[in-house]
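quick one, 517 residues, struct below
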Amino acid sequence: MISQTVLRGGLIADGHGGDPFLGDVVIAGATITAVVPASVRPSGGYDAEIIDCTGRVIAPGFVDIHCHSDLSLLAYPDNESRITQGITTEVVGNCGMTPAPGNADAEGLARVISTIDVTPDLEWTWSGVAGWLQALDECSTATNVAAHVGHGSARFAVAGTSAAPLERSQLTALERELEEAFSAGVVGASLGLMYSPGESARTEELALVARVVAAHDGVLSAHLRDYRTSALRRSIDELADVVESDGPRLQVSHLRGVGGEPGFADALAHLETLRKSKDIAADAYPYVHGHTTLIQLLPPALRAAGPDAVVSACMADPATIAEHLASAGYTPEQIIIMKAAKTPDAVGLDLTGAEGDPWRWLVDLLVENQGMVDVAVESGLWSDVDQALATDWISIASDGTALNRTHRASAAHPRSWGAFSAGYRRLRQHGTPVGEAVRRLSTAPAARVGMISGIVSGHRADLVVFDDHTFDAAATFAEPARPSVGLDHVYVNGTAVVGAGRPTAARPGTLIRRRQQ
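---
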């Protein structure tokens, strides 16, 4: 007989957005077997392990629809950065970048996706998307994981780093790569329209990707071509124009305005209009600092040529590249070096720590690191963040990665450790009810990728128990590897991965393939 665990006496926020109710959640094996309101609790109690949840919220496990744990989950399977903020399922493969397909040229693909790879010593043992998914499936992890296929990686498999429009034969080959990925079990495809080589895609190519995703009832997650507030509407329309009314679910990734300009509310209103005829939603993180490759601060024509071309340009004309970086619109204190493997002493510094011209220092870092430098940039407005979080079709997502406190290869953005706890706290501070806040962290993002979620009998027992009043992030740029506070218990597939506020070292997570629940 399977032993039972009962989360007893908590406020159950079942994920459907309504008011929580007092009751118990019964778990047997990996499954929720009963949800019992306190008024009908059995008089004789339960023959089970009892977890006292008095004064706590019991919620569905949080689903991070946009993260970059594609490789780091294999290196850090205990996934401390995620479980300690209540995340039970990660969706990897975002921004058009995945470690397959395209890894017949593993070195070339590694350079293409370098900004998501924070574990450079990890050996890639797979060939193709099926092999990568198998590696995720065979690795015992603390969290569940589902995957997109990255359009940029698929394009690299077909045409390398070419910025030219794809020829008919190449479009056919791209379609074949996407079909093979869906056959392997991905839940969707992602676009990275600010990253080479994906940013070279034209309308015909984007429409092809949308058609394939729609045929498999998948989600199309999109890093827009331009997040400057003045360009948001144009960037959104580029994708809305290729998504038919019966097309794929379109998920605008990490929706935000960049550059400190007004007009974010207008972009939200435009999306509201589009939503009347198309299945469009978005996700956002509760921070004003982004985290990306330094190459993104360069003009589009230069960055589209790829990191090798950028390094060549830096060596040939460093003064001009420095001018480009200086004209990107940010001050030295707004830019923090997050990853620079060949110059580790630079990691964690903002540009005020540079000797001499800070922009020329960035050029030198690009050369020394073969173009693979990541930065965090204070590029948004808190007023925009709060407008996004006040919108009921925008979910919380981290844009972060699976890490442990032992990680040293790069500096961590605090969102990797605290996006969901910080997002919950900010939602509550601005008046969002408990039930609705929970929905935005759990069932809403799950539904976008076709996953079943929620505290319902028969569903997977992914659950979080926390204190509504104190649940919050503790991670900062100075100390990013700090677990959230106010979190008591986290269950993944019925097994405690956090108990009494501490990781248990259990690894019950599984790979969730398309249509597998």
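The mean pLDDT is 95.
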